[in-house]
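agent: user wants the structure for Chorismate mutase family protein from Rhodococcus opacus. delegating to structure tool.
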Amino acid sequence: MYFSVEQRNGDDSGEHSDASAQQALDGLRAELDAVDATLLDAVRQRLEVCLRIGELKRREHIAMMQPGRIHIVHERARQYADSHSLSPEFFDSLYDLLIAETCRLEDLVINAEPADEGPYHNGHHDHRDNHHVRHSSVPSANVES
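agent: tool returned. relaying tokens verbatim.
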């Protein structure tokens, strides 16, 4: 069982008047909004690191897919879930999404033309290189799997 009633923080007993219950709810929502802001920033930071990893993989001709690394990331998430009485299935799903975005971003970076070797010559685009993505089209975020 995940998140038993005894594990929750705060007073959710229902013994509030309507006004104080709304005030308590507003306070909890503000707390949740702050946690969400931290979570979103952490995901952005993770994606930015992954973009740097993609740059390194491109530069050093390292394969994008690293199944051993993916296994390590999933296992670490499962252990975290287990040690905090959380759902390992949820964390598997969460990391499946993060890893999919990591792969998408790394693929963009790995297949991008280096800034000094772009398919542009005298301002004209060489249409034979349409499969390449310019660095400026890669979002400012990185993910590592």
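agent: one observation worth passing along. The chain has three helices and two strands.
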